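Worked problem 6 (solution included).
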Amino acid sequence: MSLKIENLHAGIPGREILKGLTLEVKPGEVHAIMGPNGSGKSTLSKVLAGHEEYAVTEGRVMLDDINLLEIAVDARSRAGLFLAFQYPFEIPGVSNANFIRAALQARLPKGEDLDAVAFYKRMYARMDELEMSRSFTARSVNEGFSGGEKKRNEILQMMMLEPKYAVLDETDSGLDIDALRIVSKGVNAMRSPERGLLVITHYQRLLDYIKPDVVHVMVDGRIVRSGGPELALVLEEKGYDWAKEKLANAA
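Solution. The predicted structure is:
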């Protein structure tokens, strides 16, 4: 049982971005992917989520025993995959509470209804963990939110949906120190022996808060180095040119 990416090739018309990426995240593990701009990190998250602009030309992505590439976007979510976007979308006219409630309702067996009292009790508890005002329940999803508020809202959704595997695409982007601390606290609260997390980031600072079990370095659409948490510190010291050397030597 794992989230297993096998020899994944994908891109946009006229350009291959992912070039044979292989990676496995098992339940209970936290993996971090680091890499320079243009290395394909966000492309990976979008391909996993089923973004229509990206075509997969080779490889497969297995979530336990399900090939995600063979099922629709909404089915991927129901199968247990969650993506926290680098730039969360705004959904005018749909309140946060109704959005999350509808997502949970869609996961219930046909004919079964969500318990409204239990739903709000659990959501309020999660919001308290993220230091979110109760007023956010009535506000439209991400509309008029600051960058930090959007990221907290993404983590709230993850906490409520309780996915098997979560991909966090540059969750630290645009966050100040206080927001980073709160968002990281929410992510750490989701660590579980039954859940795998894949954290995508440019900077080692996020990994001071969310301690990974494995760190991967991604360059030119593939993983070129993997190691323990200390690998992020080496990158901080030597930079991505050091990681690129391995790719150049292998060419």
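Discussion: The longest helix spans residues 147-161.
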